[in-house]
Amino acid sequence: MKIKFIIVLVLFSIGSVTAQMKKWTLQECVDYAYENNLSIEQFELDLESIKLDKSDAIGGFLPSLSASSTLSGNTGLSFDPTNNQPVTTTIVTASGGLSSSAVLFDGLRNIHRLNRAKLAALASQYRLEDLKDDIGLAVANGYLQILLNKESLIVFRAQYAVTEQDLKRTKELVDSGVVPKGDLLEVEATAATQEQQIVNAENLVFISRINLAQLLQITDYDNFDIVDQEFMVPPSNILDNSPKTIFDKALTFRNDIKLSESNVDVAEKDLDIAKGALYPTLRGFFNYNTRYSDQPTFDPNTNTFMTTSFGDQLWMNDGISYGAQLSIPIFNGFSVKNNIKRSEINVDRSRIQLEQDKLALEANVNQAYADVKNSYKSYEAAQKSLEARRTAYEYTRERFEVGLMNAFDFSQSQARVDNAEADLIRTKYDYIFRLKVLEFYFGIPITVN
């Protein structure tokens, strides 16, 4: 039994470690953000609340129904509600009724409220999806930032490994008298600088992991990490399309544009509702009432007083009323007129906002297009620069090893290679992210393969 317990404990520990060491893909990060982001949860609650407006609007078409009942006792002079005769004794009475009313015509305001509720729910859905778009881009940016920092760390460690070999080789050259001892100190200084770069790069990796974890609202920073992968520049033909083509397509599916369009529709429905107050309102009503008294009543047929049962009185004393009520607005202190004017202003404001959003989208697309072109040129230039720096470094290394170059000039050549490699990584991920943004405007989902 003890052995079985130990085996189960070991298996559980292994499973716990495996769970803690889970590494996240970009899609997993995005999905998790969608499910756990507090802003998204807030917007989802707003959407649920707005959907209730539709139920309210549907309820406006239905007749109302209410019931009432009263039981009372009176001592002294009072009136019997069943015959309206005065009595001077203790009397117990009861009454009850049902009432119902329905709006027959209200200037079509109920219909406009229902249509507005549908449009408002649609606008809220677009608002939620637009937030998800922004969060998806933020997650992708944070994800790529971790990849950038990890790749930089790998390069710094590789550079340090090369410097260690140079350091060993320089010691041999110093011992053989080929180069002075000062050259050894210069290489040692270079190695110390690279060690500091590695420490800084490790910190950047950790900080970028924290930033992404916080975006996902994960607090276990030590055990949060993304999948280790070699990320190459993805092929893309997005630049084969003109900015105008990308913009025109973005107009057809971008949630921020659809949100602005829906806001215009909602404002127009608000205007219709406000204008509906100019028309008369017609209501139909129906009421049923009955009453009871514990007082005896005089029966002329028998010349005696008799008490009628509770059930019989409810049947004998009931009555109904029904009819219609017409309310015609004549003067209301300019409130209806002013509400219509406010609604017209809101329609104009919504239309202006839609045009501003379209202009902003067009500017963003053109900026993203230019950013992709410029960042790709920078990436190409960084590739050529690194290749040239590496060639120059190999040449200076050969000269250093035979004593034709001092350690300072050699370390400078190596530093230029280090800087070129760091610049290549930076321009690479800068180009990748900007490419993903432009593709996103074209309707291509953000993925990292």
Automatic annotation (TrEMBL):
<keyword id="KW-0813">Transport</keyword>
<dbReference type="Pfam" id="PF02321">
    <property type="entry name" value="OEP"/>
</dbReference>
<protein>
    <submittedName>
        <fullName>TolC family protein</fullName>
    </submittedName>
</protein>
<keyword id="KW-0998">Cell outer membrane</keyword>
<feature type="coiled-coil region">
    <location>
        <begin position="351"/>
        <end position="389"/>
    </location>
</feature>
<dbReference type="InterPro" id="IPR003423">
    <property type="entry name" value="OMP_efflux"/>
</dbReference>
<comment type="similarity">
    <text>Belongs to the outer membrane factor (OMF) (TC 1.B.17) family.</text>
</comment>
<keyword id="KW-0472">Membrane</keyword>
<keyword id="KW-1134">Transmembrane beta strand</keyword>
<keyword id="KW-0175">Coiled coil</keyword>
<dbReference type="InterPro" id="IPR051906">
    <property type="entry name" value="TolC-like"/>
</dbReference>
<keyword id="KW-0812">Transmembrane</keyword>
